[in-house]
C-alpha cells in the first residue's frame, strides 16, 4: 500500500495523470493507429506512391529510348531495313529468307 501512495505522490505520476496529458496521449494514439488517416495508413500510401513514381521513371526512360530508336530509324534507311528484316522478317522480292533457331544448334 505504501508503494501505491509513493507512486501517486511522485511528480511523473501527477504529470501523466493530468487531464491535458491524458487527452493529448489519447489523441496521439488515436491519430497514430485508429484513425482512417492513421500514420500506418500514410506509411503504406507513401510506399505505394514511391512504387508508382518508380514506374513513371521507368516508363519515361523507355519512352526516351523508343523515341531515340524512332529518330534513328527515320534518319537512316539502312537501319530501317535492318529493323524490318530482323523484327518483321521482311525481304526483297525474289529473295529467300532462312530462319535459324539458335536453340536447335545448342542441342546438337
Layout of strands and helices, then pairs:
Elements: H1 2-9, H2 11-16, H3 19-34, H4 39-75, H5 77-88, H6 102-107
Helix pairs in contact: 4-5
Q: Can you characterise this structure?
A:
The protein has one domain (12-88). Helix content is 79%, strand content 0%. The protein has six helices and no strands. Helix 4 packs across helix 5 (77-88).
Write a short abstract of this structure:
By secondary structure, the chain is mainly alpha-helical. It has helices at 2-9, 11-16, 19-34, 39-75, 77-88, 102-107.
The total domain count is 1
Low-confidence runs: none
Gross morphology is rod-shaped
CA-CA gap between termini = 90 Å
Structural class: mainly alpha
Number of helices: 6
Task: Label this structure with key terms.
79% helix, 6 helices, 108 residues, mainly alpha, rod-shaped
